[in-house]
TrEMBL record:
Gene that this polypeptide is encoded by: acoL
Entry keyword set: Disulfide bond, FAD, Flavoprotein, NAD, Nucleotide-binding, Oxidoreductase, Redox-active center
Family statement drawn from the similarity comment of this UniProt entry: Belongs to the class-I pyridine nucleotide-disulfide oxidoreductase family.
Cofactor binding note of this UniProt entry: Binds 1 FAD per subunit.
Organism superkingdom: Bacteria
Gene Ontology terms, MF aspect: dihydrolipoyl dehydrogenase (NADH) activity; flavin adenine dinucleotide binding
Provenance organism: Tepidanaerobacter acetatoxydans (strain DSM 21804 / JCM 16047 / Re1)
Protein name, per record: Dihydrolipoyl dehydrogenase
Length: 457
């Protein structure tokens, strides 16, 4: 069985490896670098930069822990970028190695469907190669949305693609969109000294999360002196004398740069979908069935090009499931337990349903909460801000959870497992949690659903 994957982001490369492990002969086509947006322009570079600014923060706070740092502590932005670039290229090599080790042919070029079983690759030198495939997986990812109003120029008006390659730290930056990308990059820049203003059209930043959760981040952003404007949109944008001037309804904002992070759109432009009879929906997404197969039999689509959350771990899971299905399986992705993570300080992580969604749906639910402040471990590491909130249905089944605070993105794994398996608050709360750890906040929040948290005041 010959399988061709187009796009080597986290969706495509994991699909390729899974298919190879299941015995398929696999070729993967990538026009840029393996690892896709996630590795080259997304998850990994942002987290590398955030890790650098975290270290800066820890060192500045060292005295509180009885550690004296003599001499001046300063942030070296270009070294932070170098470290990030080095990490990314090491990991690109790592993925290429993995692909080759699994006997997968990597073809550099733009892949295009010729029909349901033929893919044309246009290589950098203009030469073309035609591949015959029994099955095809489309995984071409997404690009930033930047409407004409913003007058994107890649220099003053930029997207996350450019911000990750800045040569120097700007003095001021307007960030349009207070979602995950806007918040992570905004806090990173602020911590290195940039004056940051976040403009978010919705009533709160992180609009997909509950208000009490987002409030914790807002509190920290206020401490960080990040300006937040909510409930308003940008009405005009121009660049004058090397400055960006933006209208926000009746106010004018001015800054060195503007980053537009208002969302991403599927990238399917070069794919030749029409040649296989595939049409996209109004938002450019490729419709698929529960097995991730498109309307063209034998052609699957995964990741940011379909109507599922724009997240690397969703793309990866879909890649693995599509590969299994392409090789005769009958699997589905469990979308009820998709973790959502924001790597700011405090971190924000959530899974399943939110309280606001349940209120809108007028569904019965119960809540248990526990503040990190009440934990020995949180006090020891001086990270007491935030809480765990768990949500159960009328049968005590866990249907959602949020963690905002230290290591929230790692802590969420236990709650994701519980929501995935449909476990009850009692079942998970009965598990012995190690002391002193941050995970005790989860146990206490689960006990709190029944009013039985020992340490809750
Ligand atoms: P992509 O990763 O976009 O990969 C698609 C690949 O296909 C690309 O390499 C592209 O060059 C290639 N391609 C496109 N067309 C063709 C063609 N015709 N022929 C050949 N190759 C082609 N997600 C998280 O889960 N956690 C995070 O922390 C996180 N942080 C992010 C931070 C930023 C700044 C951004 C922008 C995104 C972030 N994401 C994060 C989202 C995540 O990066 C994407 O959801 C994920 O990369 C989608 O994977 P994919 O495989 O669908 O597509």
């Amino acid at each position: 069985m010959r399988l061709v994957v187009i796009g080597a982001g986290p969706g495509g490369y994991e699909a390729a490896i899974k298919a190879a492990k299941l015995g398929a002969k696999v070729s993967i086509i990538e026009k840029d670098k393996v690892g896709g947006t996630c590795l080259n322009r997304g998850c990994i570079p942002t987290k590398s930069l955030l890790a650098s600014s975290d270290v800066f923060g820890i060192v500045n706070n060292a005295q509180k822990f009885g550690v004296n740092i003599t001499g001046q502590v300063s942030a070296d932005f270009s070294e932070m970028m170098n470290r990030k670039n080095k990490l990314v290229s090491q990991m690109v090599n790592g993925i290429e190695f993995l692909l080759k080790k699994n006997g997968i042919e990597i073809i550099k070029g733009v892949g295009k469907l010729i029909d349901k079983n033929l893919v044309e690759v246009t290589k950098d030198d203009g030469s073309k190669e035609i591949l015959r495939a029994d099955k095809i997986i489309l995984a071409t990812g997404s690009i930033p949305v930047c409407p004409g109003l913003f007058n994107y120029d890649g220099k003053y008006i930029i997207t996350s693609d450019e911000v990750l390659n800045l040569e120097k730290i700007p003095d001021s930056m307007i960030i349009v969109g207070g979602g995950v990308i806007g918040c992570e990059i905004g806090q990173f820049l602020r911590r290195l000294g940039t004056e940051v203003t976040i403009v978010e059209m919705m009533p709160q930043i992180l609009p997909m999360e509950d208000e009490d959760v987002a409030k914790q981040l807002i509190r920290q952003f206020k401490k960080d002196k990040i300006k937040i404007i909510t409930g308003k949109g940008i009405t005009s944008v121009k660049v004058e004398n090397n400055r960006v001037i933006a209208g926000v309804e009746n106010t004018m904002l001015e800054a060195d740069m503007m980053m537009v992070s208002i969302g991403r759109k599927p990238f399917t432009e070069e794919l030749g979908l029409e040649n296989a009879g595939i049409e996209t929906d109004k938002r450019g997404r490729i419709p698929v069935n529960r097995k991730l197969e498109t309307c063209a039999e034998g052609i699957y689509a995964i990741g940011d090009i379909i109507d599922t959350p724009f997240l690397a771990h969703v793309a990866s899971k879909e890649g693995v499931i599509a590969a299994e299905n392409a090789l005769g399986g009958d699997k589905e992705v469990a979308y009820h337990a998709v973790p959502r993570c924001v790597y700011t300080e405090p971190e924000v992580a959530a899974v399943g349903l939110t309280e606001s969604e349940l209120k809108v749906a007028a569904k019965a639910y119960k809540i248990g909460t526990f503040d990190f402040r009440g934990l020995g471990k949180a006090q020891v590491i001086d990270k007491i801000q935030g809480f765990v909130k768990v949500i159960t249905d009328e049968n005590d089944k866990l249907i959602g959870a949020s963690v905002v605070g230290p290591n929230a993105t790692d802590l969420l794994a236990e709650l994701t497992l519980a929501v995935h398996l449909g476990l009850s608050a009692e079942q998970v709360g009965d598990v012995i949690h190690p002391h002193p750890t941050l995970s005790e906040a989860i146990m206490e929040a689960l006990h709190d659903v029944h009013g039985q948290s020992v340490h809750k005041v």
